[in-house]
């Protein structure tokens, strides 16, 4: 399908709680921020002006407007006060956020052709905008509250989130899902008509994430060339299942040269709870908490590793899987997000039928033993994600925007 796309589709992108410039790997900032900025930049490059609206992290009241790429602006508006807010705590501030957005729009006499909102909080604001502006509204949930409640240990998503998602699922014009699994969840948990859902997979920066020399990368990270390096990259949230990986590593502690490298967190220091658990399991000497790592340095980590592990209870997509494969590194993952659609078992990794530490340990053992003995494995891993560029994502999304605008016009 190759429709002609008008050169100036002005897009309002809403990402209220998580800034595309936030610190990746910290509590609430991860794949969605990468997604919003990467998609917006690609759209901007193609001549579509994109304004991304997000909350000002310090609660400043005037709008702060910054360029984020060709044709892309980041507009930070007040929603709540200074510092960290849990997503649901922002809910009462959404109306004043929308009022600020409307004042900004009026000050520049802006008219948008469509709204693309990310996560349920932005969806709420997008729903008001859809009514006031009379333009189509596409929502990407990124994660679904009801799906998280079915998967995550010991944490419940608040009822206001579930209500808002159910409401949006009925009233927005289009839902963009990142995986076929998310489309099934939307049908099963929110009764969404599949006709209103489009699946558009996420992307990866194939220029940044590429295989680097393994020995050089290891030297830079102070790892030995004979080490068996197991990598984790993600936010420290119970949903990420790090606990499972620590237990699996404890089962493998006698494996020669085993090293567990854990990336993510609020800063450079080791997080208290996982490091306490590692000590309790007797694996602290083989575990390194690398802290939050700048996105641009991650190719070094992926290239140094023998395997990336994604032990999550739930993922909306799982960008780290694409990033590792793009660097030529196999992935061992639970059956979450996009994993079964991307990982080729026995060739580029394995997908576990359940998340037990015993099974994870067994699968890791197989992958570590196979490491190095499989010529062309890195090239195969890289080739397996060649179709996942952000440019491809933008092309598909533009087709969806065009379809949506045309349908709306009718
Ligand atoms: N990330 C990063 N530095 C870190 C930890 C994570 O740049 O210290 C990035 C990682 O490269 C990936 C994103 O954060 O692009 C995490 O996305 P993913 O979809 O895997 O998980 P999410 O955060 O959306 O649950």
Characterization of this structure:
The protein is of the alpha/beta class and 410 residues long. The chain has two domains: 214 residues, Glycogen Phosphorylase B (Rossmann fold, 3-Layer(aba) Sandwich), CATH 3.40.50.2000; 170 residues, Rossmann fold. The chain has 15 helices and 14 strands. The protein has an eight-stranded mixed sheet with strand order 3-4-2-1-5-6-7-8, with helices on both faces. A six-stranded parallel sheet has the order 11-10-9-12-13-14, sandwiched between helices. Helix 3 packs across helix 5, helix 7 packs across helix 10 and helix 8 crosses helix 13. The chain is globular.
Enumerate the distinct ligands.
Answer: uridine-5'-diphosphate
Question: In the CATH hierarchy, what is the class of the largest domain?
Answer: Alpha Beta
Rounded to the nearest angstrom, the distance between the terminal CA atoms is: 20 Å
- The amount of helix comes to 25-40%
Spans where pLDDT lies below 50 across 5 or more residues:
1-5
Number of helices: 15
Looking at CATH, the homologous superfamily of the largest domain is Glycogen Phosphorylase B
Q: H/E series, N to C?
A: EHEEEHEHEHHEHEHEHEHEHEHEHEHHH
- What is the CATH T-level topology of the largest domain? Rossmann fold
